[in-house]
């Protein structure tokens, strides 16, 4: 197998192609018939390039065999060679329930490059209740939007309006928990995918919980609002003495298609997956949902739209709205891995924090607490 790297700074051998923003793409080029098609395949795979510029691209460090008619997309199998851990004889697992915690109407062009100017989408804001089968831990993955949005850091107000976001919170995480008889004080762990306003909720009622957050986000909070009036991150978000910062994700061992994951309880029931790109410290969760090999992957904001997973759309970098991700290339690379997870692992359900099709199919149903998302 020959792996190649496309580099946006190089040019010549492949000639000009209608692409831009190509950074680092990994393809099995030996399986690709000719170079511009490789670029198209890479486009399909990562979905990160814009279609209307003429930046030249070439391949380097590759041995290319012309094989017209060879299937284009082959790298997924190469990514997904690592099995997920097999269950043990008394395997612990997690019951996962969805919580509806607000809605955000967004300009669709902010999240997918195939949208038309003026297209809007109403995104559900989902949090997840994760209950361990034996140790009694009650974990929340994200808290959604807080109801008292007037108490968000000052800068958010102008920013949300400026982006054209319309946020509504008919029910928040506390309301959603109450539907199944849980109070915030029953929650033992709050794990944040990242610290954007639609994920951090209101941390104050969770007085018995340990908060878990990517260490890379720590300085944002420690020097946050109101000390820094321009900060988007509330200084009082993470309770002192009850916060665990996830250090050195680069040292975590690989898991499935992902290079770095942490076994939360040490029993293979729940993993924190390093998910770089969207924001500093961004993480995903991979929870085992049965004792016989079912899983759910909670992707946070690694993708805001399912079409990024299927390859039907790419990540835009809108002239006015900017990019939805702090590091577009790292996000695109992570999406490739998520796509591998969805395609190559039939017993893994992949859900986004703003998963419109899944929400539309499941709203008000048994997947929402006090119900449980069925294990695959
Ligand atoms: Zn976000
Ligand atoms: Zn979000």
UniProtKB/TrEMBL annotation:
Annotated keywords: Hydrolase, Metal-binding, Zinc
A Pfam cross-reference name: Lactamase_B
Organism: Trametes pubescens (White-rot fungus)
Any coiled-coil regions, as ranges: none
Family: Belongs to the metallo-beta-lactamase superfamily.
Lineage: Eukaryota, Fungi, Dikarya, Basidiomycota, Agaricomycotina
Name of this chain's protein: Metallo-beta-lactamase domain-containing protein
Single GO molecular function: metal ion binding
InterPro entries for this protein: MBL_superfamily_lactonases, Metallo-B-lactamas, RibonucZ/Hydroxyglut_hydro
Record CDD domains: metallo-hydrolase-like_MBL-fold
CC cofactor: Zn(2+)
Domain Metallo-beta-lactamase: 124-354
């Amino acid at each position: 197998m020959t792996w190649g790297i496309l580099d946006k700074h190089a040019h010549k051998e492949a000639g000009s192609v209608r692409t831009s923003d190509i950074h680092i793409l990994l393809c099995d080029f030996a399986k690709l018939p000719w170079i511009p098609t490789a670029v198209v395949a890479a486009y399909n795979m990562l979905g990160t390039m814009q279609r209307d510029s003429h930046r030249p691209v070439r391949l380097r460090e590759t041995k290319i065999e012309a094989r017209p008619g060879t299937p284009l997309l082959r790298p997924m199998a190469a990514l997904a060679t690592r099995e997920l851990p097999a269950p043990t004889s008394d395997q612990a697992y997690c019951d996962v329930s969805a919580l509806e915690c607000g809605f955000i109407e967004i300009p669709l062009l902010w999240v997918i490059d195939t949208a038309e100017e003026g297209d809007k989408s109403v995104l559900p804001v989902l949090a997840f209740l994760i209950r361990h089968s034996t140790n009694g831990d009650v974990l929340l993955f994200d808290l959604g939007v807080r109801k008292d949005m007037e108490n968000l850091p000052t800068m958010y107000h102008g920013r949300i309006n400026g982006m054209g976001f319309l946020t509504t919170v008919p029910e928040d995480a506390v309301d959603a928990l109450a539907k199944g008889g849980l109070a915030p004080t029953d929650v033992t762990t709050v794990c944040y995918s990242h610290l954007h306003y639609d994920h951090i909720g209101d941390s104050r009622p969770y007085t018995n919980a340990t908060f878990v957050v990517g260490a890379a986000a720590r300085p944002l909070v420690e020097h946050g609002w109101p000390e820094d009036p321009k900060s988007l991150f509330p200084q009082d978000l993470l309770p002192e003495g009850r916060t665990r910062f996830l250090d050195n994700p680069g040292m975590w061992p690989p898991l499935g298609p992902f290079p770095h994951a942490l076994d939360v309880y040490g029993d293979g029931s729940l993993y924190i997956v390093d998910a770089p790109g969207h924001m500093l410290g961004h993480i995903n969760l991979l929870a085992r949902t049965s004792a016989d090999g079912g899983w759910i992957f909670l992707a946070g904001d690694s993708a805001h739209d399912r079409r990024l997973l299927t390859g039907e759309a790419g990540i835009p970098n809108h002239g006015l709205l900017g990019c939805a991700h702090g590091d577009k290339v790292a996000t695109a690379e992570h999406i490739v891995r998520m796509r591998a997870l969805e395609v190559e692992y039939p017993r893994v359900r992949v859900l986004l924090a703003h998963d419109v099709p899944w929400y539309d199919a499941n709203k008000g149903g048994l997947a929402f607490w006090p119900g449980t998302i069925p294990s695959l």
